[in-house]
Amino acid sequence: MFNRIRQFYSAITAAVNENETDFVLSNLLPPERDLFYEMSIVDQRHALDVSYKVMESLQSRGYRVNSPEMKQLLKVALLHDVGKRAGDLNLLDRAIIVIMSQFCPGRIEIWALHGKGGFIQNRRHAFYVAVNHGELGAEKLQQIGCDEEIVNLVLQHHVTETDDWRIIILKDADQRS
């Protein structure tokens, strides 16, 4: 519960500073940056927080800052939620999703529906994006010609069972951010 309160506070105070903009510029190619900046500031902040936790985790395992593994996972961390565009999920939607996940497990998937419209339809679209953002992000990354490894890691970042150490590190960082 404390983690959810912290996440809500982080969402309402989300900001990206100049050093973090430089971090994004140094880790993403121009088309990838465009996708990053299509996300809301809340999701940009979250992606940066995930990337910092990924970096800490890899450094604690002995990986160098400029190692290929570090570069790849930082890119994935920054891009893992690009399936969520600004305007797809607002704070109300996020709160509803958290509450429903807690008290009505499985209902979000049932009520998810692609496409915006009125109040209810917009909530259903938010559910759709929340449930399918891995696939939506992977499609966007494929469209810009992103490396297949990156695409696959974004696609799989919410799988429940995996032996892939990269997904395990990413999921841990994602859950703690």
User: Beta-sheet strand percentage?
Assistant: under 5%
Number of beta strands:
0
The CATH architecture can be given as Orthogonal Bundle
Stretches with pLDDT under 50, minimum 5 residues: none
Helix content: over 70%
Cα-to-Cα separation, first versus last residue: 14 Å
CATH T-level topology = Hypothetical protein af1432
Oligomerization state: single chain
Rg computed from alpha carbons, rounded to a whole number of angstroms: 16 Å
Domain count, please report it: 1
Q: Which structural class do you get from the secondary structure elements?
A: mainly alpha
Q: How is the main sheet built?
A: none
Summarize model confidence as the mean pLDDT: 91
Q: Tell me the series of helices and strands, N- to C-terminal.
A: HHHHHHHHHH
Number of helices: 10
